[in-house]
Amino acid sequence: MKRTLSVLTLLLALVFLPTCGNKADPHQTGATTVAETTATVITPPEKHPQDDPNIDASLAYELRTAYRDFCIEKSHSNYYTKENFDLNDVYVRSYYGTYSGCPVVWMVWTDLLVTQAERSVSVGGYILHFTTGSKIYIYHNRHFYTIEEAYNAQLITGEDVYQIGLKVSFRGVVDTAEPIAP
Question: Using one digit for the tens of pLDDT, what is the confidence trace for 135-164?
């Protein structure tokens, strides 16, 4: 009885196994062959050569595409579109880490001119000093916010502002002693 079941199992395997996973080939007649299976490997996009070395390639790509859209929206011009805006013109100059779940970055668009004048920003009870007109952005849900906007929208905390300031403010962080309420 066991031998009969083994022979029957083998015959069923020979009949059904060759057709498992095969898709019908309209050009094939008669014989069916076992299809080779290959796994699809999804690789993250390559980083821009000037992206901060400390940022993940997938996050850098997401930031670059979102920043391209942001620049197109802010350009107030019909000249820039997704079709003629080269992603190679955008990169993550500096990645400062993630605060309250939001990446903090300095983005660069090579076509955008910025001033090299010092400026100060008062936010969350702290004063941060910058050497350029370029802004540090907080990224949340495919949108870019300045530090002030992110703080006022409660995307980051006063402690986040302080910690970010330690990394981005060229003169250090000045505590105003009276926190500004969001």
Answer: 899 999 999 999 999 999 999 999 999 999
* 26 found inside a domain: no
Domain that holds residue 157: 57-175
Is 119 within a domain?
Answer: yes
Count of domains for the chain: 1
- Domain contains 68: yes
User: Does pLDDT of 173 surpass 50?
Assistant: yes
Q: Which residues contact 85 (CB under 8 A, 6 or more apart)?
A: 68, 71, 72
| Number of other residues whose CB lies within 10 A of the CB of residue 63 | 24
DSSP 57-90: HHHHHHHHHHHHHHHHHHT-SSS--TTT--GGGE
**In angstroms, what is the C-alpha Rg of the chain?**
28
Q: Is the pLDDT of residue 8 over 80?
A: no
Q: pLDDT at position 103, please?
A: 97
Lookup: tokens for 178: 């009276």
